[in-house]
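The following record pairs a protein chain with its ligand, phosphoenolpyruvate.
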Amino acid sequence: MIVVMRPGATQQQVSEVQRVVEAHGLEAFVSLGDERTVIGVVGSDVERVAHLGTLPGVDQVIRVSSPYKLASLQDQADRTRVRVNSVDVGAGHQMVVIAGPCAVESREQLLDTARWVRREGARMLRGGTFKPRTSPYAFQGLGLPALRLLAEARQETGLPVVSEVVDPSHVEEFDEHVDVLQVGARNMHNFVLLRAVGQSRRPVLLKRGLSATIEEWLLAAEYILSAGNPNVILCERGIRTFETATRNTLDLSAVPVMRSKTHLPIMVDPSHGTGQRHLVGPMALAGAAVGADGLLIEVHPDPPNARSDGDQSLGFDEFGQLMDELRRLHFVRRESEGEGEVTVAAPMEIAAGVDEVRHRIDDLDARLIGLLQERAALAVEVQRRRGPDGHGHDVRRERELLRRAAEGANGPIPPSELTAIFGAVLRASRSAQRRFVQDSHSADATRKP
Ligand code: PEP
Ligand code: MN
């Protein structure tokens, strides 16, 4: 913290600042200038002397370090990865799409949506249980019974579920039934609720308040972190501005701004961010393009008849088209490409030093050899089950593999070379099968009298 004195401040005023600082167990370093005196304040918890600005002769007090410690990138350089069952969010992992209805309305509505979004590649299911509605007469959500429906949807689809908790006394019950507790925009300043979810063992999705600055939002995250819960995911969902053409103004600059300030993952909600169905797709793509760790998207089987937020909910087809587009642009992977286990580390994320990089290459080579042998062993197993006279390859699957290989060219290897590599892998597996057949024939021949 730096205290800047007014021009002409007296020596007595400077000494008084120094005295107050030291009385709080902090150190004061005084620099006398020709015009002004500045005093550097150091020590732990300098916020204790935040009131220095009210002392006579003080012009301004400038904070140097961030008021949020646990959320700050200054104090933790490694990005936080939040693990939700087997889904990783943040720290360079594949972008995660969370989709589902604004509110859980019925068993059928939720399960239909869950099955559909799963099929389309969503990795988590959302669904509101208690809806914080502007009007007390609007649908308020099914309440606690919806938690059981969410648990059932998770059981059937395997998708972790996310739901908003509005009452601190419900946290325990939510803990039992859902995988991620959401704190909604209207509750970002509800410090009792923030502390309560801070004591939960579940990760928390913290929406940005309707009029919250980045700093206020990070301080809200700090409440949760300081209560003992390290698993916080931030979610930009639009802020109130003078603009009325959209429900909110989706502040996408919050994503790179947050990246520069915090290690926590950051998601984008283009549904509440825009309030209009036709804007959700473009802003979801934009969110992905600015590097969001995930997207939160409202999907409903019958948006015009949804009991809340129908105007901004995507129908099944629209959600499918958006997922296709996200896949085409390689923001999300195809299911066949794995659930994010294989991540291409960006060169800057690889630890420094040529030797270290070479060791990583050696490790990968060893794993590749093992994987290729495992693949060939499985091909031989297929041959064994087909019997020695069974012939013919599943050409359709081979073609599909080559096509996928060509499409997986979002790294330094171009499609032609990937296709050539997989062509060689297929040939090696086929030769292993042929050798197996020949060996079985010659074993048969030696057994025959
Ligand atoms: C929601 O995601 O269901 C919701 C109510 O969002 P927000 O708190 O951002 O308005
Ligand atoms: Mn909603």
